[in-house]
Amino acid sequence: MQAEKHLFATTPILGSILRKRAVERLFSSNSREAAVKLAGAVETGQPESDAIFHRLLLLQHSSQPVMHSAVWNYWKASRFEELLKRMHASAALQPVLLQALEAMPENDWGNGLLFMLWSLLDRDDIADKIEASGRHAPALEMDALFGLVRCFQRRSGGCFPAAECRRSP
Asked: Domain ranges in the chain?
């Protein structure tokens, strides 16, 4: 693939143009291999990695299911290391992540990723999105954990009356 060859071009003056053109070709190919190549380029510090990462987050499962699934599976295979690193480093990416999580398909795969990221990031805004959309984790244990954590947060935070979280006798 010609685009892969130029993804890390370092030629003075032309290097930037070649890299940007390679990124565009890879995004337009809508293939699994291209998605993995782009996600790998972000991890290895490709000069346009911030812009690539942002575009990868904005991939929609409804319009680009192959690339979307490939990118999220790639990140999942590395325990979301790059995603977590970038989320902790930049507050500007937080709304983009929420948008990406809202766009996750409502199936076991999408819900599993959503709950996994909630457990790794421990963010209330992600939990709020899960509750608002009525999603359930594919594993009963994760669903139960989510319910318990949210109940505890409501009790201790005073957001809701304690009666909403019933105690077992």
From this structure: 1-92, 104-169
